[in-house]
Amino acid sequence: MFSGLGLADPLLKALEAEKYTHPTPIQAQAIPSLLEGRDLLGLAQTGTGKTAAFTLPLLHRLNKNQKPPGRNGVRALILAPTRELAVQIGDSIRAYSQFVALRHTVITGGVPQGRQVKAMSRGVDILVATPGRLLDLVNQRHVDLHMAETLILDEADRMFDMGFIRDIRKIVQMLPRERHTMLFSATMPSEIEKLAREILVNPAKVEVTPEVITVDRIQQHVFHVPGSRKRDLLHELMTDPALSRVIVFTRTKHGANRLAEQLMKSGVNADAIHGNKSQGARQRALNDFKDNRSRVLVATDIAARGIDVDGVTHVVNFDLPMEAESYVHRIGRTARAGAGGIAFSFCDPSEKKYLRDIERLIKRPIATAVNPLGAANDGGQGERRDRDEDSNERRRKPHRGQPASKKYRAKPAGKKAGGQGPKREDGGKQAPRGQDGPKKSPAKPGGNKPFRRTRTRAA
């Protein structure tokens, strides 16, 4: 029970209002150490309850020691890699702090800074920010970090992947040396391990193994299907009403847009979310999905750790991720807060190596599902995948405007070499060999060397 962790009564009242009664493993381990003021290194993926694990003790300590933050000042700084995750953390703070007098705000890129500057003018107790926009406002002197008492890095490995590690080090140098610091990461690459040694002092360590959570709570199935049939398979699966709230992951932004449009045309309410969309469009898509106005949210990996929606029934890996760890984060969008979930993965022959890496990471084979299309579920052997449709088919260009060589010239389907030439893109017929291609010079009588034709220059 949360009541046994030592949290203040206003926070327990907020947890009761949110119908949270029992702490998750990471909350039960982290909260007592943080209430004591110890630095903390947390190894856990999203979906384990780590946001509450650092938010609740932070609110407890700030509320116990109330003091004004000062103009443009910050008492606690939380850094997140994506806009969605920053907004999600802000929503959690709003829910848990409803009975305490503390101010917080969220600043991210992708939106005008006017409201953010206004919110910072009186100072805040808690600032949730993405690194890029934070540095912009610091350089413009709209944010003052010199009095910050607490620093929390959430999804540190994701920030490293996105190239924020230098920005983080710049921000750390602006903070007081004497502070309370927490670092949370799903994985521990060498650069993050080095950063943890630099900024943490004698930290408590809490670890929740993501593989255990994945295996125990999520039913995982893989469909071996040619790339050209993936869309048909998804449409067939969506005829099942049990797939009531679904996140579909694609590899590319354009692919996400295209797939969402095709689902809409087939009568399935869907929207796409990815890095090329504005913050407003991304938030609208996420809100529509939360409020059941959209049945399907098509996303790229930018949303793998930034979506916290209860009741996601299924996750579909339309394209398998190239990094096995991303698979764990993707399917973790279901099975939130201790619930179960189902994950479907589409694997074409070119993605089998990714599937092997995933199974090696989660230490178990993924069950093969029967293809409802009725096609042979043999992995699509012998069929080529229709690769990314974002770009046109690549063809070998002729040298200096000359016709393509025989090796790279397209052959008509069902025709043998030497038959009628292939049609050109303008609808006409390609001229027979020898009429528009380079001609061989006739042999010189009495010798093997060709002679050159001469051209008389006009007077």
Features:
alpha/beta, Rossmann fold, 2 domains, seven-stranded parallel sheet, globular
Quick structural summary:
The protein is of the alpha/beta class. It has helices at 9-17, 25-35, 50-64, 83-96, 114-120, 131-139, 156-161, 165-174, 190-199, 210-217, 230-237, 253-265, 279-290, 324-331, 352-362, and strands at residues 40-43, 74-79, 104-107, 124-129, 150-153, 180-185, 204-207, 218-224, 246-249, 270-273, 296-299, 314-317, 341-347, 367-368.
How would you explain this protein's 3D organization?
The chain is built from 15 helices and 14 strands. The chain has 459 residues and is α/β, with parallel strands linked by helices. The chain has 2 domains: 2-208, 3-Layer(aba) Sandwich (Rossmann fold); 212-368, Rossmann fold. The strands form 2 sheets. A 7-stranded parallel sheet has the order 3-4-2-5-6-1-7, sandwiched between helices. The protein has a 7-stranded parallel sheet with strand order 10-11-9-12-13-8-14. Strand 12, helix 14 (324-331) and strand 13 (341-347) form a beta-alpha-beta unit. Helix 3 packs across helix 4 (83-96) and helix 14 (324-331) crosses helix 15 (352-362). The longest helix has 15 residues, at 50-64. The N and C termini lie far apart (104 Å). Mean pLDDT is 81; it is low at 376-444.
